[in-house]
Amino acid sequence: MDKNTTELLKIENLQTSFFTKKGEVKAVDGVDLTIESGETVGLVGESGCGKSTISLSLMQVLPQPAGKITGGKVWFKGENLLEKTKEEMRRLRGDRISMIMQDPMVAMNQLLKVGYQISEVLKYHENSSSSLNLKDRCIDLLKRVKVPAPESRINDYPFQFSGGMSQRALIAMGIANNPDLLIADEPTTALDVTIAAQVLKLMQEVQKETGASIILITHDLASIAQICTRVVVMYAGRVVEKAPIKTFFKNPAHPYSVGLIQSVPVLGRRRDQLYSIKGQPPSLMDLPKGCRFAPRCEHVFDKCLNEYPPEVTLEDRHKVSCWRFV
Amino acid sequence: MFSLSNTGVNTKKAIGARLPYLGLVCLVIFFSCVFFAELIAPYDPNEGELLNATLPPFWQVDGTVEHLLGTDMLGRDVLSRLIHGSRISFLISVGCISFYGSLGILVGLMSGFFGGRVDMFIMRLTDLWSSLPGIIVLFMLASVNGPSATTIIITFGIMGWPGYARIVRGECLSLKERDFVRLAKVAGCSDLRIMFSHIFPNLVNTIIIMATIEVGGIIVATATMSFLGLGTQPPSCDWGLMLAEGRQYITYAWWLVTFPGIAIIVAVLGFNLTGDWLRKVLDPKQKLR
Amino acid sequence: MENSTIISVSNLKKYFPVTKGALLKKTVGHVKAVDGISFDIKRGETFGLVGESGCGKSTIANMLLGLLKPTAGKICFEGEDITLFDKKARFKFRRNIQAVFQDPFRSLNPRKKVRQIISEPLDVHKAGSRKEIRERVVQLLELVGLSPDSLESYPHEFSGGQRQRIAIARALSLEPKVIILDEPVSALDVSIQAQILNLLIDLQKKLKLTYLIISHDLAVVEHISTNIGVMYLGSLVEQAPCEELYNHAAHPYTKALLASVPVADPENIKSVHLEGEVPSPLNPPGGCAFHPRCDVCESECYNKRPGVVELNPGHFVCCNKFL
After folding, report:
1. Cα gap C88→C74, rounded to integer Å
2. pTM value?
3. Which of B178, B186, B202 comes nearest C99 by C-beta?
4. In this complex, do B289 and A20 lie within 8 Å of one another by their Cβ atoms?
5. Distance, in angstroms, between A272 CA and closest chain C CA?
6. How confident is the model at residue B285 (pLDDT cuts 50, 70, 90)?
7. Measured in whole angstroms, how far is the alpha carbon of residue B213 from the centre of its chain?
8. Does residue A186 contact residue A120 with C-beta atoms inside 8 Å?
9. Quick check: B35 and B208 in contact, CB under 8 A?
10. Which residues, in sequence order, are CB contacts of C40 under 8 Å at separation 6+?
11. How confident is the model at residue A315 (pLDDT cuts 50, 70, 90)?
12. SS3 sequence, B79-98?
């Protein structure tokens, strides 16, 4: 890919809420995000920060009837996805935008052969391919994700696949139609360390091969450091920091990002006490008035408690929402 | 901008949301009959004047306001009999469910908790039991014991427990693998304590839901038994019996079969709708929404 | 008694029978979940067990907790073999070892209040009058950093981190000598993980506890342990003090494992060090179980099962290269 970097996806002020009996939960509350073609962006945050809701919103597969997009725009290749009809979205999903889920055991239908499930993805988005051709393409896809002996494995059922192999098969389904955007939601969380390393590497190779952009949604900073080019940190429904990968790990700006990086135990760098962010993330139904991180922040001052900080650009492409930098 | 309104979904939801109220209304009617029969019923259900026999409901030509739903061939007030009949349905349902419910729960808990051979034995027994034809058991018991409400309770009790046992066992199997049960063992809790203090409370929802839905079935079954002459005997005012007695007069006294039929429908509908609603409310996964 | 051995496991085995046939069950083979494992845990130390899923680390925990009966081998607690205990002795012994499990959403009974959850072990062991137990529960809550207001709440009212604190309070209630931590932080968010790890370290210092921590996360285990055992397919392939293991890992599997832990540092990109997957324990490879994935495998590894060698004091390795 040596095209000039172009905007593939642009999310403007996206707001998504879940309407529950207890009230409205603003899972995503005004998020701006741009993904350029060919880049791998890590979306990091704790559970309930809205990172998965973003991906569900742009695929428009929010749990119904509770989930609703209440505002904003999602530009994908110049078109607003939120104005598309159900049929248009269906054609887009699995074709131009595809998704890899966390738990491969749940994401695949246990009663259908793996080969069938992959060919389904191919079939639904293509007009002319004979079944013979389909089979070859399935085998080819499994080869690309390095499943050994793909010729025989297409006739296996998902339960005959190990966790790592299932995740590879899912990736194969994800890249079946050469999508422009691949969303991976915690793709390695359910896997063992050695297998996770293999899967991460595979995703990177796939990215290089197809030139697709990847959004890697995870709570694990380490896997982001390994394959991403840019990081987006979310906290309580909002983006608090965006930075290129090296800048982020060298000079994290937002106190939450700093806390996250420091609280991970690192092999061979043993400390008596791990740094830990005090307290709990706020409930999305009862958010603090000012900066949402203020109650847990070490550097909190008056302004933080009263007003949400604007986004400040520190240097090229490094943006942070924190009053300390205003 | 994109459209946010989605009226189609909303109206559907509104009807769905009101259904449980219909169920609750049915149940309120049913239970006020059960508990306040003497106060509500205008007449004694078993006494009638032959002079007033087969009076039609009040809106028909010969009907009087004194007997709102008419009278039967012995001059007994249909409304009063229906109101008192609710008691029989209620007592039989409660009797059956507490009888076979407790048996089924106990057996299911043991089967699921101990597993292995105990489980194998109990489950094969339930299979065998479920294959017994209920109607023949009822005939047998009725011939030994004489047809009565007690016979119905005993028959249903004997026939009904395997259903409960299976469901309780299934739930118990998954609950006993939960970490809190393992931790209870680590803490030194006895098997009995684990079964009744840890597993049972987590089964309560399922049991309540099952019971409410089954009440409907039992009311219908009781009516069927009485209709066949195997259940309660005259002069009882059981709804099924009223149906059976009214059958021969159906050509000129339609009210004798219609109103008991409606009573059965109201009671069963009440329990079923409430059962469905309870299932939604008590299910912890639904609570998240 | 300082620095004496508190738990000594020797040649511990657990085989699960694999049966065929619906009615007449025939045993057709065994899954060797734990196959001849020995290690000692000293008083006051933290022993870490790491390995990939299915390597048998949780089976060991279940045997130590008396939830599973070993097929063979001994588990000695303060010199007594606990596998020989009868029901009564086992009940008394339970006070000594308690556990904290991975998922705080599953390890607390959703139908019980916090007070009941924490006091249950005390009630069962009749550890005092009702009033004493009540006071103890309040003490325990404060010990794990929760306010006593939460006594009458149900578990679903708490977040993951708080629930794990409740689980820890319950484990501490009987003043056990050993606590088995089975993946205590892997279900928690990063910022909460650090809080819980710090709490565990504090409690250990305060109450002089001995921990056995089981995890797939090498970084977590390395952070908190004094000694680490690395498991692969039911056997302990290497065991060493923490720093020794990190700096001088000997077994090729340990090396690969250490190398594949991702680092939160974009300047230090890892390459994949271990191809392939863990073989099925139902049909493990002959000889050294690791040989199909090993990059220094030699012909003898195909059929020769390696014995244990002590490289340095306290550093044991099970590999043909060192024999």
Report:
1. 19
2. 0.83
3. B186
4. yes
5. 8
6. very low
7. 6
8. no
9. no
10. C5, C7, C8, C9
11. confident
12. HHHHHHHHHHHHHHHHHHHH
